[in-house]
Amino acid sequence: MTDKKYVLSIDQGTTSSRAILFDHSGTIIAVDQKEHEQIFPRAGWVEHDPKEIWDNTRAVVAGVLSKAEINRHEIAAVGITNQRESAVVWDKTTGEPVYNVIVWQDTRTQAICDRLAGDEGPDKYKDRVGLGLATYFSGPKVTWILENVEGARERAEAGDLLMGTMDTWVLWNLTGGVSGGVHATDVTNASRTMLMNIDTLDWNEEICADMGIPMSMLPEIKPSAGEFGRGRKNGLLVDTPISGILGDQQAATFGQACFEVGQAKNTYGTGCFMLMNTGTTPVRSDNGLLTTVCYQIGDEPAVYALEGSIAVAGSLVQWLRDNLGIITDSKDIEALAASVDDNGGAYFVPAFSGLFAPHWRPDARGALVGLTRYVNKGHIARAVEESTAFQTREVLEAMNADSGQALTELKVDGGMTRDELLMQFQADQVGVPVVRPQVTETTALGAAYAAGIAVGFWSGTQDVIDNWAEGKRWQPAMDEAERDRLFRNWNKAVARTLDWVDDDVVE
């Protein structure tokens, strides 16, 4: 391994695809990034172009190699991390997608979820898969494609179509596509489809049958760290082992070195996602959280997590920028929010796709409440910032209740952690220190660690622990009465968003 100096991570995210090169210390050597189009065909629908994403993936791999002035011979392994529940279906002979990627935020599958739930309700499959029936997850998205794209059902049943989450699409193309591409996924991504048995880590035939998804479409499920395949002959990563795959939130948990039971992290990205390591036994939630696979290294037992998923966090800032034009750049929100002393009584509940954890209310829609003539755009910006912290507090309290132990600190990562005002307010709301690592690109880093461990570039998780270093810490400073008053009003605001979508509202 002496000539292998780096591990390459491909981070296929909701708004962009990135390639990041890491050295043995976990330091970033080079980054390349390309955004892709967000397609909104109608209210509640969110799509991406899978071919654009593959083109962008190739471009950022080329870009990062160029910036670092290296070639594949210095790369020990490649890791992939991805937006998790977004689903794509394609023809295995031509490599052509039959429809756009249906993105995790998309709500069009609500009628399918209701139909599947029947008289048993949204928890029908929860004991088997750890998830309640919701538009968030991949399985019903594939059902929608098979039911709504002309000819797709017949082609699927003939064995001509493949399905996957975005890691599977990238892996298949990286390893050759129609010329011998590997059709596989890892346990973390499979655990987000509603199709995998959470205890046995294999596809559940009965649920697949209920959703009308032929077993021939499904990728092989493999551990998160282990060789999936090698780079295609006519690409830039010829014969380089692709040896790590983790869904983005599990990758961040891995990169944050949350290897002990009870350790947790919160990632602030398009959405907001808190995961707590629960060890090698899945813990079922009584408080609106998801049971998910955290990671699996080779032949070792899988490690599980409890997860609280918040649909809208950073995307609310983008909405303020793109839909309302209140700011011109996402990073401007901090200064605008800091231009006022408080929220002026305004609360913003961003239930654009319904409410995720811990409520799971698809009938909710976004609301800006508490408005008076006094409120200005600074107060609205502050309400936007605070909404992320309030939602995180809801999830953390549910996590404490499920796990039976109180978190003593919250590790954080993701783009929004650069926002000092938000991080201080977050510490004030959760009442424990908030800790940001020196390397905040923990999602890409986690996938790199998994890939590097699989090939011996790193010896194991202790190397991850040794490389992790604290960057900044925020201590709670808010008066307890004020903390409680703000949260009480937030809960009143949440109540105003419920029962908005009626049966005759078509989205």
UniProtKB/TrEMBL annotation:
Keywords: ATP-binding, Glycerol metabolism, Kinase, Nucleotide-binding, Transferase
UniProt keyword annotation of Protease present: no
A GO BP entry: glycerol-3-phosphate metabolic process
Residue stretches making up the Carbohydrate kinase FGGY C-terminal domain: 265-454
Domain Carbohydrate kinase FGGY N-terminal: 6-255
Sites where the protein binds ADP: T14, R18, T270, G314, G415
PROSITE patterns found in the cross-reference section: FGGY_KINASES_1
Chain residues that bind ATP: T14, T15, S16, T270, G314, Q318, G415
Residue numbers binding glycerol: R84, E85, Y136, D248, Q249
Pathway annotation: Polyol metabolism; glycerol degradation via glycerol kinase pathway; sn-glycerol 3-phosphate from glycerol: step 1/1
EC number(s) reported in the record: 2.7.1.30
Binding site for sn-glycerol 3-phosphate: T14, R84, E85, Y136, D248
Family: Belongs to the FGGY kinase family.
Protein name (Swiss-Prot/TrEMBL): Glycerol kinase
Taxonomic lineage from the root: Bacteria, Bacillati, Actinomycetota, Actinomycetes, Actinomycetales
